Amino acid sequence: MKYSPWSQDAARLLLATLRDEKGPVLMALQLMQKEFGYVDPACVPLIANYFNKSRADVHGVLTFYHDLRTTPPGEHQISICVAEACQAVGARALEKEAKAQFGAEVTDSYCFGNCALGPAVMVDGTLIGRATLAKIEKARS
Amino acid sequence: MRVFVPGDSAAISIGADEVAARISKLDPTVTIVRNGSRGALWLETLVEVDTDSGRIAYGPVMPDDVQSLFDADFLKGGAHPLALGKTDDIEWLASQERVTFARVGIIDPLSLDEYRQHGGLVGLKSALGLTSEAIINEVTQSGLRGRGGAGFPAGIKWKTVAQTNSAQKYICCNADEGDSGTFADRMLIEGDPFTLIEGMTIAAIAVGATQGIVYLRSEYPHAISILQNAIEIAREFGWLGDRVLDSTHSFDIQIRVGAGSYVCGEETAMLESIEGKRGVVRAKPPLPAIEGLFGQPTVINNVLTLSTVPMVIAQGAAAYKARGVGRSLGTQVFQLGGNIARGGIVEKAFGVTLKELLDTYGAGTLSGKPFRAVQIGGPLGAYFSTQQLETSMDYESLIAAGGMLGHGGVVVFDDSVDLAVQAKFAMEFCAIESCGKCTPCRIGSTRGAETIDLIIKGVRVDENKKLLLDLCEVMTDGSLCAMGGLTPMPVKSAMVNFPSDFLGAAK
């Protein structure tokens, strides 16, 4: 996935699009991540100032949600569902194999709503049903 | 010539896009409709051809099957090993009672014309001619209860909001379908988004709200994009925005996307999240119906609840409540998942037995091994054993059996499952997803996982089982919301229904 390089100026322009939103902090953080691939720590004071919140407020939101990350992502993101329905069809074994092969690219997730066609894996934003290591590898390339 | 290839994300996950692309390539004159899924996910990709005698189905079609379908002249309904005959005659589908899911899989999800041809907007148009009291009365009379899991009567919630004075009221649709084993909200939004928009609009007219918000989880990118398109189409049509369908009402809908937090499916945590804050649960009272989003009166309903409303108004309360048992009226959209041969959506009147769902529809496990356990109602729901298959699937019977209906997810496990490991996972999941407000949930979940680990390892098993049950009691009684309050349900049901998995080293 392609992201823009982090830039304060670009970030400010993006925040301006949320000026009329009620309760904009989470949306702002999500927007930063969508654009830059992660939430740069410099976003915290930026968002706090822009929306008249404390830095603690913004930091609190940033650290609460599993989706939000504060470091740039790698080239590939492999997210394996390890919730019950996928566990029932071997997600734990797949998780182990995938972590052995793809290391830090792999993260756990809980449910993509594909529970009748598990194991479910999201590779760079594409959902794979009845996932196998081979299917993950193919989607990753 | 129209060919239907589902654009549902489950179908896409096993190759529907590639199937559609290959059909187009082999015959560019074919019009491909990306319908929702019929719900028979075990038949995906289910390709349907529109013929003079009705829609003919083929499935499950893999991309490599496409050439042979053309060789068999499937566009004329030709014979093929994957041919299933008329879609309407497939027993798995024909024996269901589709009410909420009536249009899903049948229409093009983003065609307002098809939506109207199949009964869409009838409910809203008749609601526009009714008083607020009459709409709410109809919903109350129908017996429609909250499909998110709590089962609270929808009409009573609406009445509270209607009677609370405020210049600004909100309709919040909870589409944070985080329970493992549930996917009905996603499939409804992807397959028939206008139904949800119609239900929200009717709710808005009934209670006097002007703004709707759909809190939709980030794990559902495809549903987000379909719903966003549907909202824009509804705005252009003069349905959403100022003067809804030329009436005096105004109503618009915004999507707020979740950020990967399970607890935000709890209604007050969801409100906090929509307000842009940490998803920390609020104490009740005040009820959200009185002080909800941004402190204003707010209707919070699940996707399925709101999407059932148009039918209730169009066909009347009596038609809806003619189905079901006891106080569980109407239909429930069950979702069969996990280790199951025929998974997908089964919409049936309340009162169908677990056995019927698993045998008639599920047709055994995917692995072919004997079935051993089934978890009903998501990660906070109980584990049932093969001894409990006669349980009637309705709110009250499931509670009486020590479980709950939840959002209607049914997750099957074969005999390789270890229920002590599943119980430990329930605690671990709670530890990961707890919002942290209540100590029994925040800390109890971690201690619970550790205690189950000791039991698994055979350390002071009897003593630790007693301790675990005590901890479960504290979590149940000492947590504000269902996250900490119901995590003990899978744990205790596993201990009670599968005692042989909790013998420690002795097993």
From TrEMBL, chain A:
The protein's matches in InterPro entries, at most eight in alphabetical order, are given as:
NADP_DH_HndA-like (IPR028431), NuoE_N (IPR041921), Thioredoxin-like_sf (IPR036249)
> Which Pfam families does the UniProt record give?
2Fe-2S_thioredx
Q: Does the keyword Amino-acid biosynthesis apply?
A: no
Q: Which UniProt keywords apply?
A: Iron, Iron-sulfur, Metal-binding
Q: GO: which molecular function terms?
A: iron-sulfur cluster binding; metal ion binding
What is the official name of this protein in its record? Unannotated protein
> From which source organism is this entry?
freshwater metagenome
